[in-house]
Design goal:
Elements: E1 2-10, E2 16-25, E3 28-38, E4 44-49, H1 52-55
């Protein structure tokens, strides 16, 4: 069964937050999206859909 895993981190200046979304299947985890959000406005500043390896 697949599950969704998320992780977040807030910048030191508390202005932005980064997030990642992964699909977990058994022992393997596959990142599917990454992004940055402005905490004051809630606007998504960046969004990458796909794994980092595919973009590099």
């Amino acid at each position: 069964m697949n599950t969704i895993s998320t992780a977040t981190a807030i910048s030191d200046d508390k202005k932005t937050a980064s997030f990642s979304i992964s699909v977990v299947c058994g022992a393997s985890e596959r990142p599917v999206a990454f992004g940055t959000v402005d905490l004051a406005t809630g606007r998504v500043l960046s969004l990458l859909i796909g794994s980092k390896d595919e973009v590099a």
